[in-house]
Automatic annotation (TrEMBL):
The lineage of its organism: Eukaryota, Fungi, Dikarya, Ascomycota, Pezizomycotina. It comes from Akanthomyces muscarius (Entomopathogenic fungus). InterPro entries: Mito_lipid_metab_GTPase, P-loop_NTPase. It comes from the Eukaryota. Residues 566-599 are annotated as: Disordered. This is Genetic interactor of prohibitins 3, mitochondrial. GO terms for cellular component: mitochondrion.
Length: 599
């Protein structure tokens, strides 16, 4: 949909009391709701009426690098960009506590709005005079014999290498995230996370006929970052089933939408690309179980495990995006690596590629005018096509991308859209601000084996997480695959650490002071579906996933007769009436989350 950018559209966008879509106006697109009369946005160009035109040819007015020089741009009066290239927020210059704020008094903004003029330096003129005086006293034949050329010694015109077109500055929030890592006030501007319904309405405004959704999943806590039933919530996107007659895709409302799964940050799973590729059958089966009933019917041939930092399989994803064309949507939760993956798989430098052509849209082939602004109710305008555009910023701050970022590639062959991340775990809300970055796994963890004996517990983060085995006479081996510091202590001390009545000596407590009152039992972790073989011992294991942080692997070796003896004792206890309860140990009696059922 193409419409003129006018005050009438902005009024309708920022007044929530009027008629809205069924799900309401998402706050992540309009963070300044209620400030419409106070906040004034600085648009890129003067609003004008734009009429849609259908053409029978594919000529487009594309801005190519090198076509406009720096001198031509300097002569024009520059203005702030319509949206920030780093986070996608709409530009505004009035409220520093809102997204998209530009400080017009900052040097970097003033330099962009009023660039310095290039003038001939005085020392060049003086050097030319000295060289001319020397050349008058030397014969031209003598200069030639020495290997000099008089025409190259005198600078008649100041020929300077023309730099590339300068990029527009980013907002204050993005600038602080890049240079100060969210330590300043503007770097901590609150972010409103979108909902699946708002993302669905945003994708429905796509002007492209062919759309592809990339469901980005984090490998650190795989598969907890999977969005259940995403294909259904985004509008009945078909997944190819195992039926041999199933089609690869189908059109719905004159539009084709497909979806694939991308597991990012795969370098956290293994040291080499070959070791991670060997895990693909296991990852595919885990994803099949996480999809529920749908997982047994789909093929899951559209699953890729990539690493943007190491370049594993990113080239294949980039070529798929290029050959597919249309609109590619990056969908996922916060801090799963969407923006980092976006930078690696975006097809750069292909503006003049022979395969580049204007892709079909839902409303036909349209030739954009010079001052066209493609604005929808929820979809921001796209940028101009360039070979090497400014990419979204990459930061560990949850919710860095504030609004959809549309960057076209090729000769309008398609575009790649980075969508804001959905809300993930709220564990960071119970952690001190200076320790919240420690919850993010930034590199592969090689854990040390922790031997937890009866009467002991494993404490993570100084009491933020406590793992206490309830089985007696069993030694557990635990492996901490999280960035949190671990500590083995007795059950009595572990309960006190979590209740914040006692502090650890060398280990820091990262929890907030009032966190103990909100901690609850996470439930039992039973090993189910075991295949009993005729062996004298059994090795039982379970992985406890911590959303957004990692996982802890627990291993225990028990005798086979102990397992069967435990089952006989449990059945005998259930049949006995009025049996006295077995006395608990003093450590488990103090545990507020202790359950009587044994593992």
């Amino acid at each position: 949909m193409r419409r003129a950018l006018s005050s009438r559209w902005l009024t309708r966008a920022f007044h929530t009391s009027e008629a809205l879509p069924p799900t309401g106006l998402p706050l992540f697109l309009c963070p300044a709701v209620g400030l419409a009369r106070q906040v004034r946005f600085a648009p890129v160009r003067t609003p004008r009426n734009i009429n849609q035109r259908r053409l029978i040819h594919e000529d487009t007015a594309i801005l190519k690098e090198g076509q406009n020089t720096v001198d031509d741009i300097s002569e024009e009066k520059r203005q702030l960009p319509f949206t920030c290239s780093g986070c996608g927020a709409f530009t505004q210059t009035t409220d520093s506590h809102q997204l998209g704020y530009y400080d017009v008094a900052a040097k970097r903004v003033r330099t962009w709005l009023d660039p310095p003029k290039v003038e001939l330096q005085e020392k060049d003129i003086q050097e030319n005079g000295v060289i001319n005086n020397v050349l008058k006293s030397i014969d031209s034949d003598q200069l030639t014999a020495l290997g000099f050329d008089a025409s190259t010694l005198v600078v008649e015109e100041r020929v300077a290498a023309r730099p590339s077109i300068p990029q527009a500055p980013v907002c204050e929030r993005c600038h602080d995230l890049i240079h100060h890592n969210a330590k300043s006030a503007s770097g901590r501007v609150p972010m409103f996370h979108p909902t699946v319904e708002s993302l669905r309405e945003t994708i429905e405004e796509s002007p492209h006929k062919y759309n592809h959704i990339y469901h980005v999943i984090d490998a650190a806590d795989f598969p907890m970052s999977l969005i259940p039933r995403l294909n259904v919530l985004l509008g009945d996107i078909p997944l190819r089933t195992r039926n041999r007659r199933s089609r690869a895709g189908k059109f719905l409302r004159d539009r084709q939408t497909e979806m694939s799964f991308i597991i990012t940050r795969s370098d956290l799973l293994g040291p080499t690309k070959q070791s991670v590729d060997a895990l693909m059958p296991y990852l595919r089966e885990v994803l099949r179980d996480a999809l529920g009933r749908l997982g047994n019917r789909v093929r899951l041939g559209n699953v890729r495990c990539v690493s943007a930092s190491h370049g594993w399989w990113t080239r294949d994803v980039k070529e798929d995006i290029w050959h597919r064309g249309g609109a590619g949507w990056m969908v996922g939760k916060v801090n799963v690596g969407k923006s980092r993956l976006f930078e690696e798989v975006y097809p750069k430098g292909r503006l003049d590629h022979p395969d580049a052509s204007v892709g079909p849209t839902a409303i036909g082939r349209i030739q954009p005018e010079e001052e066209d602004v493609d604005v929808g109710d929820l979809l921001p305008p796209a940028r101009k096509a360039t070979n090497y555009p400014a990419m979204p910023i990459v930061s560990s701050l949850p919710g860095t991308t504030a609004s959809p970022i549309r960057i076209p590639f090729g000769n309008k062959k398609g575009e790649l859209i980075d969508l804001p991340g959905l809300a993930r775990s709220d564990l960071d809300l119970f952690v001190k601000e200076e320790h919240r970055q420690s919850l993010i796994m930034k590199k592969r963890v090689v854990p040390e084996q922790a031997t937890v004996k009866p009467g002991q517990s494993l404490v993570l983060g100084g009491g933020l997480i406590r793992i206490t085995p309830s089985s007696e006479n069993i030694i557990f081996l635990m492996y901490n695959f999280t960035p949190l510091e671990d500590h083995i202590t007795s059950d009595e001390k572990a309960v006190e650490f979590q209740a914040q009545t006692k502090t650890l000596g060398a280990q820091k407590t990262i929890s907030l002071p009032d966190t103990a009152a909100t901690i609850k039992h996470a439930g039992r972790k039973n090993a189910v579906g075991l295949n009993i073989d005729r062996l004298p011992f059994r090795v039982l294991s379970v992985d406890i996933l911590i959303e957004g942080v990692g996982y802890v692997e627990i291993v225990a070796q028990v005798r086979t007769r102990s397992i069967y003896q435990q089952r006989e004792d449990q059945s005998a206890t259930e049949t006995m009436e009025g049996a006295e309860e077995k006395p608990k140990s003093s450590a488990l009696a103090l545990d507020p989350f202790e359950v009587s059922t044994k593992v």
